[in-house]
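Worked example 3. Consider a protein that binds heme C.
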Amino acid sequence: MMRPTPLLTLLALAAPAMAVFAHPAAAADGAAIFQTNCAVCHSVDAGTNKLGPSLFGIVGRKSASVDSFTYSPAMMKAGLTWDAATLDKYLTDPQALVPGTKMILLGIKSGDDRKALIDFLAAQN
Ligand code: HEC
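Given these inputs, the predicted complex is written out as structure tokens:
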């Protein structure tokens, strides 16, 4: 009859605990934040629109500039340039920056998460 040794028992208990401790490091991973919060509606591939427009090259782009996408009237007249500051505001509360936007997003509440996400977007060009 084999009984689990105390060492094996300890490892079995430690493995899930280590997985939990690994999580905070991943919290500000821009690619993961994009996957979780944006990818259902957005692609970062050029020319691929979903429910929202492609976000390829979004940092530095003028608002409502994807010709193949039908924007809301509110976004059509927003007249913004998407830089770190405007994206930070929009992703905190889309309706506050562009009242009437058809993008439905509760907002990314953590400033660290928004920064990691915007850094990720800035690399998609
Ligand atoms: C439920 C679908 C949905 C989700 C989730 C979503 N978006 Fe959007 N997004 C849209 C739609 C629809 C628009 C067009 C808004 C309009 O025309 O008013 C848009 C527009 C945008 C724009 C402006 C694009 C342009 O060409 O002017 C940016 C930037 C943007 N989204 C970023 C994001 C980011 C980053 C996330 C994740 C945090 C996200 N969105 C999550 C649907 C979504």
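Take a moment to read the result before moving on. Residues 19-26 have pLDDT under 50 and may be disordered. Residues 37-38, 40-42, 51-53, 55, 58, 63-66, 71-72, 74-75, 82, 87, 90-91, 101-105, 108, 117 surround heme C (CB under 6 Å).
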